[in-house]
Amino acid sequence: MRQIGRQLGRHPSTISRELRRHTDAAGNYLPRTADLDARRQRARPKTPRLVANAPLRLLVQRKLNRCWSPEEIAGWLRKTYADEPSMHVCHETFYRALLLREPGGLHQRYAIKLRTGRRIRKTRWRTRTGQGSRIRNMTMIDQRPAEIETKLTAGHWEGDLIVGVGSVSAMVTLRERKTQYGMVINLPKDHTAASVNHAVIGAFATLPAHLKRSLTWDQGVEMSSHEALTAATGIPIYFAERASPWQRGANENFNGLLRQYFPKGTNLAQHSTAHVTRVVNEINHRPRKTLDYDTPARRLRQEHRAPATALG
């Protein structure tokens, strides 16, 4: 294949794909079939996959309506319909169908179901002004054990707040780095250090010891009583650098998912505990690309059983 690629001026992987597509069971290349396929693929205009395949289009629309991302949908389709190539679609096809004016099979109303709701991404290098941190005795993120970066061990969490209109109501958001499992505690009245500590202590109380190894937070004033939180839970707390949300990428991603259900500029106090629980449960049962399209809920259940399995 490398020799053929050199003679034709093509990459060896291109030759490999061509042979894989157009070779019979005996290993013989089928040039006539390959030529026919090439002519058919060059034909224009091509009918978009989502226009031609109505069952696929309806399935994709249902997942979009549940706030699944295009990558989650594409990965789930490949995994669920492994033996049906007609159900395999690149996630970019969904974006083009939603964000471009040309007809692609998806109604434009589903564009508002995308996580950002816009096509322009904010740069992470913007700077913010401030008076510096008011938190004492912080242990910074560069002092975290190296194992936290590898995501090979469960029990390392990232935390933050999402704040409602007028900065009155808020929600504590926690996400585990390895399993991507998330927890949310609603704070309808305030988000003082005492309220946040109480919420985090209650959330971690439901977990076994091996799933409570560390917590990473930003330098928000809600963590001004972090030493009391560590004393109550036994969990060491590490702080990210200012204006560096990518240092807590798992939690920032989780907050983005939550904002699809709890938009910015709304009163978070209006949501009942039962509703918040339903939303978090739905998010934890959505497939994740970083988990090979497995779900965070399933991965956390596996981690719950891990010590017992090891002892058995």
Structure description:
The protein starts with a helix and ends with a helix. The chain folds into 3 domains: 2-42, no CATH class; 49-113, no CATH class; 141-311, Ribonuclease H-like superfamily/Ribonuclease H (Nucleotidyltransferase, domain 5, 2-Layer Sandwich), CATH 3.30.420. The relative contact order is 0.11. Mean pLDDT is 88; it is low at 119-130 and 308-312. It is built from 13 helices and 5 strands. The chain has a 5-stranded mixed sheet, sandwiched between helices. The chain is elongated and about 75 Å long. The longest helix has 16 residues, at 296-311. The protein is an alpha/beta fold and 312 residues long. Residues 141-304 form the Integrase catalytic domain. One of its GO terms (cellular component) is cytosol. Pfam families: HTH_38. Keywords: DNA recombination, DNA-binding, Transposition. InterPro entries: Integrase_cat-core (IPR001584), IS30-like_HTH (IPR025246), RNaseH-like_sf (IPR012337), RNaseH_sf (IPR036397), Transposase-Integrase (IPR051917), Transposase_IS30-like (IPR053392), Transposase_IS30_CS (IPR001598).
Brief summary of the model shown:
This protein is α/β, with parallel strands linked by helices and 312 residues long.
